[in-house]
Amino acid sequence: MSETLPKNNIFKVIGASSLGTLIEWYDFYIFGSLAVIIGHQLFPEDAGASALINTLAIFAAGFIVRPFGALVFGRLGDLIGRKYTFLLTLVLMGGSTFLIGLIPSYSSIGYAAPILVLILRLVQGLALGGEYGGAATYVAEHAPKNKRGFFTSWIQTTATLGLFLSLGVIVITKNVLGADTFADWGWRIPFLLSILLVVVSIYIRMKMHESPMFSKLKAEGNVSKNPLKESFNNKANFKMVLLALFGATMGQGVIWYTGQFYAQSFLENTCKLDFNDSRYILLWGIAFATPFFVIFGAWSDRVGRKWIMLAGMLLGIVFYRPIYQAFLDDTDTTKMDLTGAVYAKPAIKREALSGTSDSLYTSTTNVVLKSGASFNKFQVDTVSQKSGVLSGKEIIKDKVLPTPLFWKFVGLIFFQILLVTMVYGPIAAFLVELFPTKIRYTSMSLPYHIGNGVFGGLVPFIATLIASFAGATPLSGLWYPIGIATLSLIIGTIYLSNKRDENIND
């Protein structure tokens, strides 16, 4: 039983489970971290902003199917066991990620490119839908009762560490190959590397033993014959599924994806920060905040899960708009002191426009301020051979922050990820304690993946879409996560009990 498992063995369980789950998150999140570059590869060159929105929609598709993965693999996990089910999910995730790195671009195969990537994203979503519930259940069923929050919180770190790993591999690859080569074909390397990580993880997981609680059920002949029916036809159990979704995982999901994915997208696409700067800011924020997953998980063993999670939601509701307004204000070049700025000699690039006698001229000027900040100013003109300039526009991007402002942004990202650790650190133990052993994999996976995958995973797409509407402001997209978190906070406050050290051996 879990209470008598030696301490060194529980850490082996955590290590083996966490490594595979971390790799699955890495595989799943590379796509979102490279959305802008992938959009240029999958869609026509003149697609403009729609390429990003369409790419985010493909990214979101992986989240939408996660609940179906939870049903399929949750059922398998409750029928045949935890170990073999999340071995299968690992193989599916690693294989589909590797294949994304091999898909030809739009210029080679046209719209077949985004269609093939969409299919592979759906496979990724199905695989991840089965992975998390298995890993969290497996660790929880090995953990001693009074430290369940502490031990399962290590699994909770894997999602953020998977994002950290994906960002790190992307930045290193880009810096080694150079920006142009990376945008051309180098972006594929992080996808292709995943196959090596998956092979190592499969080897480790093959050596794992089945959960002691599931083994006991199997030996006694008490394994569920129909986990889906027992999970969702049972009125009391289905009520717990709904409470878990609307009172906890829904709000937790939007806090998670706002503080990490939408934050990165906002800094890069709205504030126009330099590619590396935006990722370095997130990397530092993640590095400083990640230990708090374990801190809040362990604290939940003492004070309960509910109020820690709801406090994280409340702080997000209150502080999101001020934080993102600060991002906007501090990167607004019209408010910067340009006195003494150094303007580099413009680099001019001419491209012939196909089918016409016109040309596209792009003039790039690097501007370095006294503060140490810099940005690139692009003057883009369409020039007619007959009448001169037809149209022109100025674009400012690739902003590099001065050191004090860089660390201010790291602090603001750290605060957002701290909220992530509050809502996410205790939630695995919270979900495990809601449901009986024989249908736990199925019952906990569905609300988690609807709340975290659908409501949370859609944050970058829906927020970006809302901000693109006529009359919207750059902050308009935040109303989606704020609204969802508010609803979850109200339901959770009224209906959830403050669980701690519940018996899960039934």
TrEMBL record:
Keywords of this entry: Cell membrane, Membrane, Transmembrane, Transmembrane helix, Transport
Residue ranges constituting the Major facilitator superfamily (MFS) profile domain according to the UniProt record: 13-500
GO cellular component terms, A-Z: plasma membrane
InterPro entries: MFS_dom (IPR020846), MFS_sugar_transport-like (IPR005828), MFS_trans_sf (IPR036259), Sugar_transporter_CS (IPR005829)
GO molecular function: transmembrane transporter activity
Sequence intervals crossing the membrane: 49-72, 84-103, 109-129, 150-173, 185-204, 240-259, 279-300, 307-327, 409-432, 453-472, 478-496
Membrane topology term: Multi-pass membrane protein
One Pfam family here: Sugar_tr
Annotated compartments: Cell membrane
PROSITE patterns: MFS, SUGAR_TRANSPORT_2
Name by which UniProt lists this protein: MFS transporter
Gene source species: Pedobacter petrophilus
